[in-house]
Amino acid sequence: MNILERIKKNSDLNAFLTLSSEIAYDKAKEVDKLVATGVSDNQYPLLGSALAHKDLFLTKGCQDNRCVKGFGVVCSSILCDRCTKV
After folding, report:
1. Is the pLDDT of residue 2 over 80?
2. Above pLDDT 70, what percent of the chain?
3. Higher model confidence: residue 66 or residue 41?
4. pLDDT tens-digit map of 31-65
5. For the chain, how many helices (H) and strands (E)?
6. Are 65 and 58 in contact (CB under 8 A)?
7. 76 is in which domain, residue-wise?
8. What gap in Å lies between CA 53 and CA 12, rounded to an integer?
């Protein structure tokens, strides 16, 4: 069972406000391509790690942020960009 399935299974805990499965699967595909090329762990130490963050950090493509409800998020916060940089 992958992390997304575990989160959905335990949705009654309300631990996550928004689950961005499409973004997660897109990033996983990017990671798979990098791993296939033989990229080293030293270059990307967090490669393949799951990321969960507070809703006050903007994530490009995610429209459910409470801070910007009703507005399009056109960029991600610096924290999200650096943690998801592949």
Report:
1. yes
2. 65
3. 41
4. 899 889 988 777 888 888 877 776 666 676 666 65
5. 3, 0
6. yes
7. 3-84
8. 19
C-alpha–C-alpha distance, residues 6 and 9, integer Å: 5
Q: Check: CB of residue 31 under 8 Å from CB of residue 86.
A: yes
State the residue for tokens 């033989």: 38
Which two structure tokens, joined as six digits, stand for 81?
């960009």
**For residue 56, which of 82, 25, 83, 78 has the smallest C-alpha distance?**
78
The token duo for 64 is 């459910």
Cβ contacts of 68 within 8 Å, gap of 6 or more = 58
Place of tokens 């130490």: 45
Q: Residue 69: pLDDT above 70?
A: no
Query: Angle at the Cα of 8 (from 70 to 71), degrees rounded to 5?
Result: 10
CA–CA separation, 51 and 75 (whole Å): 17
